[in-house]
């Protein structure tokens, strides 16, 4: 609108200049004609020239008035447009400020939402990892649950077997208790019988000792262990000598009488391989252990009796310096 008003103002100024040039040209023509015409014609012509100039002045005045009106209209329009433009600029500034504020708010909201989105993505990632871990834990616990159920089933079966075994053992316990009771009674009877037999044994041993003493004389066993020569001296100091065994009966009697290995009155000290008794009588019947006498090392010249061996095979030659108890015959 402003440019259109400026263009209209320029057109009005051009029109005024054209009218002025036309007036100057008409005046020049009228002056020339006036010189050539007669005075009458000059008057008439002058009258017509005045009429033409009056029209031109009126037209110029009208054009100038219109131009002023147009200029005024343009000025008013320019002022109005300027005011509208300022109002629009103010509105645009306000709108721009509001839009900028809204934009900043939206940007802040966007930034906040972006941050929350990142946090949520991180949270989702963490929750996904936790879910995976929980799933693995759940699978592990499920497997353990199955194993425990299997274990419980096995233990239940074992419990049933143990219960059956317990019932069986309880029954056997009752049977054993009954058996123990019976055996206790039998033991009591056997103990009574044993006591009776021991009493009879003592009586028989006493009687046997009396018979032995009558048969072989008085026998004395030492409590101290000594060499063969010291043992013989021990017996001589008591009025006797080491025992001489020349019969199976006496061998059996002495073997049953003693409990420890003892010296007897037999040796080959005088001559190797020539066994003689302490009364210088030669050996006629011996009760040797297997492979004895063997004179091991060439130093076994004295004879011991070992009651732990078989009654009729319990003699053994050993070094005379060894320590043994002895049996003296008084």
Automatic annotation (TrEMBL):
Residue stretches spanning the membrane: 56-79
InterPro entries from the UniProt entry: C-type_lectin-like (IPR001304), C-type_lectin-like/link_sf (IPR016186), C-type_lectin/snaclec_domain (IPR050111), CD209-like_CTLD (IPR033989), CTDL_fold (IPR016187)
SMART domains for the chain: CLECT
Start and end residues of each C-type lectin domain: 218-329
Signal peptide: none
Coiled coil segments of this chain: 96-214
GO molecular function term, any single one: carbohydrate binding
Keyword Coiled coil tagged: yes
Entry annotated with the keyword Metal-binding: no
Keyword tags: Coiled coil, Lectin, Membrane, Transmembrane, Transmembrane helix
Pfam families the UniProt entry points to: Lectin_C
Species in which this protein is naturally found: Culter alburnus
Alphabetical list of PROSITE patterns matching this protein: C_TYPE_LECTIN_2 (PS50041)
Name of the protein described by the UniProt record: C-type lectin domain-containing protein
């Amino acid at each position: 609108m402003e440019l259109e008003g400026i263009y209209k103002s320029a057109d009005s100024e051009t029109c005024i200049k054209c009218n002025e040039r036309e007036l100057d040209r008409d005046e020049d023509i009228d002056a020339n004609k006036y010189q050539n015409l007669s005075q009458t014609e000059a008057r008439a012509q002058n009258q017509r020239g005045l009429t033409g100039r009056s029209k031109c002045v009126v037209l110029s005045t009208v054009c100038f008035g219109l131009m002023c009106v147009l200029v005024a209209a343009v000025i008013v329009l320019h002022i109005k447009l300027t005011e509208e433009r300022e109002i629009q600029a103010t509105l645009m500034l306000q709108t721009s400020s509001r839009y900028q504020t809204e934009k900043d708010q939206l940007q802040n909201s966007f930034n906040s939402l972006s941050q929350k989105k990142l946090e949520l993505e991180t949270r989702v990632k963490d929750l996904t990892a936790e879910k995976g871990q929980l799933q693995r834990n759940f699978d592990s616990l499920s497997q353990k649950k199955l194993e425990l159920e299997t274990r419980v089933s096995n233990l239940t079966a074992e419990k049933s077997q143990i219960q059956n075994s317990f019932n069986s053992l309880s029954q056997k316990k009752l049977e054993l208790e009954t058996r123990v009771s019976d055996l206790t009674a039998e033991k009591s009877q056997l103990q009574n019988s044993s006591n009776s037999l021991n009493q009879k044994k003592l009586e028989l041993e006493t009687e046997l000792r009396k018979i032995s003493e009558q048969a072989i004389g008085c026998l004395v066993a030492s409590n101290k262990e000594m060499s063969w020569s010291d043992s013989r001296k021990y017996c001589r100091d008591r009025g006797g000598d080491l025992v001489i065994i020349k019969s199976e009966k006496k061998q059996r009697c002495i073997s049953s009488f003693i409990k420890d290995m003892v010296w007897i009155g037999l040796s080959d000290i005088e001559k190797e391989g020539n066994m003689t008794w302490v009364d210088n009588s030669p050996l006629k019947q011996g009760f040797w252990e297997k492979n004895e006498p063997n004179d091991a090392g060439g130093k076994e010249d004295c004879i011991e009796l070992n009651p732990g061996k078989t009654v009729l095979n319990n003699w053994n030659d050993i070094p005379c310096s060894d320590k043994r108890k002895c049996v003296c015959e008084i």
